[in-house]
């Protein structure tokens, strides 16, 4: 993957790379502490999976070594369900049609995504040249 | 009102659990509107932050705190096209961008 190679080349030997991606399960809409519905996250997972494959290949090649992972949830907050629906109209991932009537009635709500941060260390110059 | 992403600071907290950005030269790929960039730059020596989304980068530039103006360099670019000096950074961060 050219982009990854370009970015790795910008980091000095033994420097660090942090990669932030969405992970499964599917994101959910929450309101008042309750899950209202799930959102099909497959569009984002496809890109995240491709990134993970590229990073894993760099690890296998000895260009990077993985040191740590941190899984955490992130929320995007909306004033109302109507605002959420309007915002999602322009997004690749879609809200479930069956949940639309309930979503329209919502006040303050949020979309919760699961995310993974990976810390990877760039190999020494000698190792990179071998790989 | 516009949606607000991660006001709880979960991403930044995760970055701080795994990394130390103090006095580091940082490259951020996928900076968007600079949501993470500014917090990182408060500790880092310098941040080159770029994104292919020109609107996002413009919002980042508009909201850049004056005291960090010397420390952050925002650019509109893709990961494929941007020209970066080899080994110029100690840390690279990919924000949902790879």
What key attributes describe this structure?
heterodimer, A: 131 residues, alpha+beta, 5 helices, 4 strands, B: 98 residues, Rossmann fold, 26% strand
What does this entry look like structurally?
The complex is a heterodimer of chains A (131) and B (98). With 131 residues, chain A is of the alpha+beta class. Chain A is elongated and about 60 Å long. Chain A starts with a helix and ends with a helix. A four-stranded antiparallel sheet of chain A has the order 2-1-4-3. Chain A contains five helices and four strands, in the order H-E-E-H-E-H-H-E-H. Chain A has one domain (2-130). The longest helix of chain A has 19 residues, at 42-60. Chain B is α/β, with parallel strands linked by helices and 98 residues long. Chain B has one domain: 3-Layer(aba) Sandwich (Rossmann fold), CATH 3.40.50. Chain B has three helices and five strands. Chain B has helices at residues 10-18, 37-41, 54-62; strands spanning 4-5, 25-29, 46-51, 72-76, 89-95. Chain B has a four-stranded parallel sheet with strand order 4-3-2-5. Chain B is globular and about 40 Å long. The termini of chain B are far apart. The chains are: A alpha+beta (131), B alpha/beta (98). The A-B interface holds A 1-4, 6-13, 15-22, 48, 51, 54-55, 68, 70, 72-79, 83-84, 87, 115, 117, 119 and B 1, 3-8, 10-11, 13-15, 17-19, 27, 29, 78-80, 82, 84-96, 98. Strand 1 of chain A pairs parallel with strand 5 of chain B, so a sheet runs across the interface.
């Amino acid at each position: 993957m050219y982009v990854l190679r370009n970015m790795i080349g910008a980091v000095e030997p033994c420097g660090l790379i942090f990669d932030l991606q969405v992970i499964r399960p599917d994101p959910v809409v929450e309101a008042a502490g309750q899950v209202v519905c799930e959102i099909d996250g497959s569009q984002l997972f496809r890109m995240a999976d491709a990134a993970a494959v590229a990073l894993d290949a760099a690890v296998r090649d000895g260009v990077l070594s993985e040191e740590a992972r941190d899984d955490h949830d992130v929320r995007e907050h909306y004033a109302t369900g109507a605002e959420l629906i309007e915002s999602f109209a322009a997004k690749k991932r879609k809200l479930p049609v069956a949940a639309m009537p309930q979503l329209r009635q919502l006040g303050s709500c949020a979309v919760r995504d699961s995310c993974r941060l990976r810390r990877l260390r760039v190999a020494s110059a000698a190792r990179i040249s071998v790989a | 009102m516009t949606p607000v992403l991660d006001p709880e600071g979960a991403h930044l907290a995760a970055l701080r659990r795994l990394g130390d950005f103090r006095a580091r030269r940082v490259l951020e790929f996928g900076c968007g509107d600079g949501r993470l960039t500014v917090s990182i730059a408060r500790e880092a020596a310098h941040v080159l932050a770029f994104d292919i989304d020109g609107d996002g980068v413009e919002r980042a530039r508009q909201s850049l705190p004056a005291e960090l103006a010397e420390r952050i360099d925002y650019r509109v670019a893709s990961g494929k096209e941007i020209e970066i000096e080899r080994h110029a950074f100690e840390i690279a961060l990919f924000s949902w961008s790879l």
